[in-house]
Write a structure and sequence with these properties.
- This protein has 10 helices and 24 strands.
- The chain is an alpha+beta fold.
- It has a domain at 2-291.
- Strands 2, 6, 7, 8, 9, 13, 14, 16 and 18 form a 9-stranded mixed beta sheet that branches.
- A hairpin with a 4-residue loop joins β13 (195-205) and β14 (210-218).
- α2 runs parallel beside α3 (133-145), α4 (233-245) packs across α5 (269-284) and α8 runs parallel beside α10.
- The radius of gyration is 21 Å and the shape is globular.
């Protein structure tokens, strides 16, 4: 399917000044309709936390979990951008949620993206009564009822020193840093890059106050080490931004390409949210207005091939993560039973105005692939959002497959073709280029 379609006061002054522009500012040409909907999905009882091969149970709540929806409408088009505080969200439930959204709001299912934050301190979808379909649809319905004229602005920031490639090369093969003794973890060269650069999209009401802030950052949401329910660093970022603004504003986190990127664990945990949140605040003070915020959307449903000749890498697992050998034997056998030649797979591209776009994939994409897409994109601002409209496991680079290691082992978390990275990059760039040419 293809379809083209105090500090707070000072900051508001800067935003108002940037978006003024005399008499033209009062015209409707620079506005589109935007609405926000939020549904609380924080568990009230202790729950099993996803994100670890060993079962972990929560003892309390750190930061709340939410479904947040931003609906944008312009020129007869509507798009819903949904963020979800959970580890992952499978494609079959995405399809159900999108169908429910279309039924209740009229927004076409092809115009909806649902992005999981990949927090490692939240329950998975089976914990919820209807696998989160109702909260997702409710958040979008709330956002539709909240639609009002707004202006949009974009900016780019850098959060240095909070993330790193978690794979290092030892004796010619790839190890994850957690598989090494603490004294060894910084001894070897990283296999790939991390990406400190990120883009921000701000939604501003006619009163000059922020209605929503959306950002895209490439790092695993695995910074919280306590056994608590937590939205992880995206929750910390929201608290930082709201505190500095002096009023509540939802921050929507689109997970960047971070299949091989983790937080720098030697840093004080709170520093991540403070540094990234502080840089978002600086971005909000230097926004570039989107003068003509028209919408274009392209959704593609494709069949992604599965892994060629899958095999159990028992020697590699026994060397690098021996405590998890039995777990990965079971994961291999389970995935072999469920293996398919191809998998239902969605790409979506959204263009807003002349120079801002989002392109999505449903994987844990290695950072270098995401950086390459951004570098080649025809747009000044490009968000590459992974874990979106499905959850199909790790997509390493060709270099990473040669190096072996955790993310390449066939099983529940790694089962797509070794060419998936190449396919995703090619399709993403084709979508972005088609959107750029759309009129």
């Amino acid at each position: 399917m293809r379809k083209v379609l105090a500090l707070g006061v000072v900051l508001v002054w800067f935003v108002t000044a940037a978006f003024a522009g005399g008499a033209e500012a009062a015209t409707s040409s620079g506005y589109l309709d935007a609405g926000v909907g939020i549904v609380d999905i924080t568990p009230t009882d202790p729950v099993v936390l996803a994100g670890s091969p060993t079962e972990l149970k929560s003892s309390s709540v750190g930061t709340g979990l939410y479904v947040k929806a931003l609906v944008l409408a312009a020129g007869g088009q509507k798009v819903a951008i949904v963020t979800l505080d959970t580890l992952k969200y499978p494609v079959e439930h995405v399809v159900r949620a999108c169908q429910q959204i279309e039924k209740t709001t009229g927004i076409p299912a092809s115009n909806v993206i649902i992005c999981a934050s990949h927090t490692h301190r939240a329950p998975l979808w089976p914990y919820y009564k209807d696998q989160l379909v109702t909260p997702i649809a409710e958040a979008v319905a709330l956002a539709v009822r909240d639609l009002m004229p707004c202006r949009l602005g974009t900016s780019r920031g850098r959060a240095e020193g909070v993330s790193e490639c978690r794979r290092v090369i030892k004796n010619g093969t790839a190890w994850n840093r957690w598989q090494l003794d603490s004294l060894e973890r910084d001894k070897y060269l990283a296999e790939g890059p991390s990406d400190p650069e990120f883009d921000v999209l701000a939604v501003i009401g006619k009163d000059g106050r922020f209605k929503a802030v959306m950002y895209n950052f490439a790092c695993h949401a695995a910074n919280t080490r306590e056994l608590v329910v937590s939205a992880d660093y995206p929750g910390d970022v929201q608290q930082c931004v709201q505190k500095r603004l002096g009023y509540d504003v939802p921050t929507l986190f689109l997970t960047g390409a971070c299949g091989d990127v983790n937080p720098v664990y030697s840093l004080r945990r709170e520093l991540f949210g403070e540094k990234l949140g502080g840089e978002i605040m600086r971005c909000l003070g230097r926004l570039e207005p989107i003068a003509k915020p028209a919408l274009w959307i392209e959704c593609r449903e494709e069949a992604m091939p599965g892994r060629e000749h899958p095999e159990l890498k028992e020697d590699d697992i026994a060397l690098k993560w021996p405590r998890q050998l039995e777990h990965y034997k079971a994961s291999f056998n389970d995935m072999k039973k469920r293996e398919q030649p191809t998998y239902q797979y969605f790409f979506t591209g959204i263009r807003i105005g002349d120079d801002f776009a989002i392109v999505t994939n449903p994987d844990e994409l290695f950072c270098g692939i995401g950086m390459s897409i951004k570098k080649q994109s025809p747009f000044k601002h490009t968000m590459v959002a992974e874990q979106t409209n499905g959850a199909h496991g790790y997509v390493p680079t060709a270099k990473a497959f040669a190096g072996g290691g955790y993310e390449t082992w066939f099983g529940e978390h790694s089962y797509l073709t070794t060419r998936a990275g190449e396919i995703i990059e090619k399709e993403s760039l084709d979508i972005l280029n088609r959107l750029k040419r759309a009129e």
